[in-house]
Protein: Chaperone protein DnaJ
Organism: Leptospira fluminis
Amino acid sequence: MSERSYYEILGVAQGATDDEIKAAYRKLAIKYHPDKNKGDKASEEKFKEATEAYEVLRDPKKRQAYDQYGKAGVGAGGPGGFGSGAYTDFSDIFGDFGDIFGDFFGGARGGGTRRGGPQRGSDLRYNLEVSLEDAALGREYKIEIPRLETCSDCGGSGAAKGSAPTTCPDCGGSGQIRRSQGFFSVATTCGTCRGKGTIISNPCKTCHGQGLVEKRRTINIKIPPGIESGSRLKVSGEGEAGPNGGPHGDLYVVTHIKKHELFERQANDLILNKKISLTQAILGGDIEVPTIDGKKVKMKIPEGTESGQVFRLKGHGIPYLGGYGKGDQHVVVKIEIPKKLSRRQRELIEEFARESGEGLPGSKGKIFTNK
């Protein structure tokens, strides 16, 4: 081991608080842990060094003895001292410090936790198709989902009535088998109980020992006005039931807005293409325009309106989600050119052309020219 002081190894001052020492060790332990640096002897030594320093400085009595007498005061590295058994088992080193190594051991503490206890159920996802009208106005949907629920016959234990799961004889209920490998002990899932910690000798006939059965459940989902495609609505506690009587997970409803035959959505605005006649474009007038709420509003077309011109209907768009007010509706007018003319209509158009000084081309079918 290094001759550096424990404070220097952890990178803290001699008067450092317990939290500062813990934070410093956390950083070094994660950085130099053997599982992240397999085969790297230098990292292994730094990990051991940091662990030795932390084991002394985290204990008030050991720290006081170390401050007075140095390493000799805590017997570090001596017979029967810290160095003799520090690395035979992770639980010997970390004990109540397992939160640091959750990333390495799946959240389990060094000695292994009993896996037969209640566990939270899985979250579920449901894709819901929503019409543009419902996205704008809001609506309540009823959806039906298949999910795992606690078996009512066995209460979630998985064992038949009158019996109960027994503790696994191989792992003692921990769900893990621990084997020593050099300095460390490695935990693997118990093959007998498959990590559950218990064995069911007489399984429930309804759930076949799983403790869970699949059922269909109907749930009411409220779609708020202004929701967008891809939005996620969380329904707490409506996911699957957890094993061994654990709580339900959550349900996430993901919305997908269906394409509308008239309106195109752009954020909180709506775009509507509206055809008008040639005479309306020339002379102007009032037209009726549909809105997303199923109503119609009057809109004024001024004289000389061109095709592609955009008019705004303020406040007739999509509501702002969780806020106040609405977007706008933009009406894009498209002038509809008549394909067939009566004799009288043609005479009037030709007269209009002459009055405009355009004259008439040789072909009667081509009165106007594109420029």
